[in-house]
Specification:
This is ABC transporter domain-containing protein. The chain has 672 residues and is of the alpha/beta class. Helix content is 47%, strand content 17%. The chain has 5 domains: 127 residues, P-loop containing nucleotide triphosphate hydrolases (Rossmann fold), CATH 3.40.50; 106 residues, Rossmann fold (3-Layer(aba) Sandwich); 53 residues; 216 residues, P-loop containing nucleotide triphosphate hydrolases (Rossmann fold, 3-Layer(aba) Sandwich), CATH 3.40.50.300; 86 residues. It has a 6-stranded mixed sheet, with helices on both faces. Strands 14-15-16-12-17-18 form a 6-stranded mixed sheet, with helices on both faces. A hairpin with a 2-residue loop joins strand 17 and strand 18. 28% of the residues are buried.
Amino acid sequence: MLDSRRLNLKNKRFATALASIRNTQKAIMISVENLKVEFGVKPLFQDVSFVVNDRDRIALVGKNGAGKSTLLKILCGAQKPTGGNVATAGDTTIGYLPQVMKLSDDTSVKEETRKAFADNTELQRRIERMQNEMAERTDYESEEYARLVEQFTQAHEQFIMMGGENYEAEIERTLIGLGFERTDFERPTREFSGGWRMRIELAKILLRKPDVLLLDEPTNHLDIESIQWLEQFLVQGAKAVVLVSHDRAFINNVTNRTLEINCGRIEDYRVKYDEYLTLRKERREQQLRAYENQQKEIADTKAFIERFRYQATKAVQVQQRIRQLEKIVPIEIDQVDTSALRLKFPPCLRSGDYPILIDSLSKSFGSHKVIGDVMMEIRRGEKVAFVGKNGEGKSTLVKCITGELDYTGELKIGHNVQIGYFAQNQAQLLDEQLTIRETIDRVATGEIRLRINDILGAFMFGGETADKYVKVLSGGERSRLAMIKLLLEPVNLLILDEPTNHLDMVSKEVLKEAIRAFDGTAIIVSHDREFLDGLVSKVYEFGHGQVREHIGGIYDYIRKRNAGSIQEAIDRNIAPTQDSKPEIPVENNRKQQYDQRKQQQKKLRKAERAVEESEKKISQMEKRINELDQLLMKPEKASDMTLVTEYTELKRTLDDENNRWLKLSEELEQLK
């Protein structure tokens, strides 16, 4: 009896272990062994081995040019390696989103997205054909009719298992999640920009629900709302993900593993990106110590060889040291980025207190109102963000500010304002006949000319790349070059429209630090939360034709909006209190808000004047008291009661005025 129980327990343990092994084997989606890729003399990778498992969320990181995009192409089979093997588990499906792809222009948005369900739609058409055939035929007792019914039943069951007609709802949910409106569904794809058509391709890939998603910079053309939706989709719905992204917040929220390409090798860190940075720093410090010890050993060995090379009594020891030197495998240190590089904008004129004042500005294209009744005050030195879905008017308002578009309402550009504008098409304005170095050399002045090589290196134009002509550069390279050019021009109002789309993390950090140290005013149109974090102190949200002001940083704004749904946060009006009147119409409400802001500004200016006047009085009284002190120190004036009385009254008045100044200053701080 006891032996029987032990045998059963042993069998159960064996079955559990076997199941565990099978599950582990099944979990491996892609296996890479001894991968080697060569484009020139030096291999891009060599001896690279790793696996992609089910539920892995992998961030692929490394310097630009390290081979991240190449590795993704190899994983999906679009490119062959020089050596090694890439094996995909039997029925594993792969979805690949490259940075640039050929886009279709001959269908509507929904029709194009529906191609993701080509198998479903073909099966649905087959079912409809069989259904029509059964309705037309009358030979109900024949074997052919029975086979047709059986085929119809099997096909219908398969169609239900594949989700039936529910894919239409999935298509709509995905398109809306990626920023499309329902009114966009039937519009031809050719009416949309390249960025929006990339969203359609991303929607198709996500809807196919592949086992492994390979995404190369998926957030480049997404706004904040769409990025947050994609984050949730990848975390909750995807099986395995390998992604390249320069959006630090995005990869931290999505990934649980980091593969770093460095020095032609891959280091596997089974942690999020932020934790990887800490571990990488520790690892590099260890490498550096080992490298220094090895260099000391090499130097000592070479010194011994040189010292005793020609002494016959030391010949054996010299030959031993030579052999030791030949066997040493040099320790490679991880490539160091140039994030310590600091750029500083050149000196510029001081602008007025308010570089931008906007009052009731509206802009329409035909019958379509993009923005209406915009009110905005941007003070000198402020760094503000424009956020919102694409198409809600961010770039439109920027073009109104720069004078590219006309408008109704009032827009005042302050005294001595010099605008530096980086637009999405800024790269097209570069001189194609110049090299990269010549382009920068023409705008660099002063000591910055001595650091041109460092600056170009920080923006991925180091070495021989700096001598390439602008005409042979890709769109992303031109955008980076236009950004450097702007950084070196003397402006005091900086307007950047999606500046980080083609920058890696190092370049973004260099740009962020330059803007943070910038003495002037900055308006940044961006969806990159990590870039905006700690940089802006005010957020303007664009949505449904309105522009709403949020005081605080980008994460303060996101937290406020996440209290309800994002759409509700855009549309929400201030709820009335129990003692307040019923909610007034929107137009009246806007006017009331405008009047309240005007009143607030009026109170602020009045308080500032009161503080200034009080400070002037205090200064005058202190000056007079000093004069009286000098007079009363003279013997002949010491008993002059007129001076003594004036001195006593003045001291009392000064004390009262100091108290009044303190109160006025506190009131001013509260108003601010």
